Amino acid sequence: MKTFSCSAILFDLDGVLVDSTRSVDRQWRLWSNEHGIDPQKTVAIAHGRRTSEVIRILTPHLPAEEETIRLEAREAADREGVEVMPGAAELLHSIPHGRWSVVTSGTRRLATSRLHLANLPLPQVLISADDVVQGKPHPEPYLKGAQQLGVRPEDCLVIEDAPAGIQAARAGGMKVIALPSTFPASELRHADAIAPSLSTLKVALENGKLAVRL
């Protein structure tokens, strides 16, 4: 059994707390076909990144903000196959209030929609694409999450499912547990540990710190 000691846990959303992979893939593929882009190329870079950044990379001639609003509105409305990840609700309810946050590459509108759909609690701190200048793999989102929780980055543990998110957390000086829900374990090798699912994680409060065991 491996144990991580931390002051706070920062969760990515899609692929970690909420299984939205089918919805995300479906909408990105639809968008790609509309703009004459190979859907495989889009999906390969889309997970873990802000929608606006993916659009700027693939279609720099398009108004990124307008496209983002349109695409994420369609994602929010596409609820087919969107489900809570196994163990997510139980894990969140086991963490003391104010000791966890959600750090997502989606907009606040999309994030709150997904949390409500999955019947998960809203965190005290939610960092979305709307709150940062640079998204993952830049460390700004996770550093901002730590700052708003009032915790030093090195005292944070991140739960991620995407290489871009792992890179962001590690660049911010944080430990990372990865879930092989969206990418195979071979692509998550830069994480400090890989957990089969959230159900395998247990959190306890010990001497003022969170002890996360897997």
Give a description of the structure:
The chain has 214 residues and is of the alpha/beta class. It folds into two domains: 150 residues, Rossmann fold (3-Layer(aba) Sandwich); 57 residues, DNA polymerase, domain 1 (Orthogonal Bundle), CATH 1.10.150. Helices cover 37% and strands 19% of the residues. The chain has eight helices and eleven strands. It has a six-stranded parallel β-sheet with strand order 6-5-2-7-8-9, covered by helices on one side. It has a three-stranded antiparallel β-sheet with strand order 1-11-10, with no helix packed on it. A two-stranded antiparallel ribbon has the order 3-4. Strand 10 and strand 11 form a beta hairpin. Helix 3 packs across helix 4. The longest helix is centred in the N-terminal third of the chain and has 14 residues. The radius of gyration is 16 Å and the shape is globular.
- The number of helical elements comes to 8
The total count of strands amounts to 11
Number of domains: 2
Poorly predicted spans: none
Task: Based on the coordinates given, report the CATH architecture of the largest domain.
Answer: 3-Layer(aba) Sandwich
Category by helix and strand content: alpha/beta
Summary of the model, kept short:
The protein has 214 residues and is an alpha/beta fold. The protein has 8 helices and 11 strands.
Which descriptors would you attach to this protein?
single chain, 214 residues, alpha/beta, DNA polymerase, domain 1, six-stranded parallel beta sheet, three-stranded antiparallel beta sheet, 8 helices
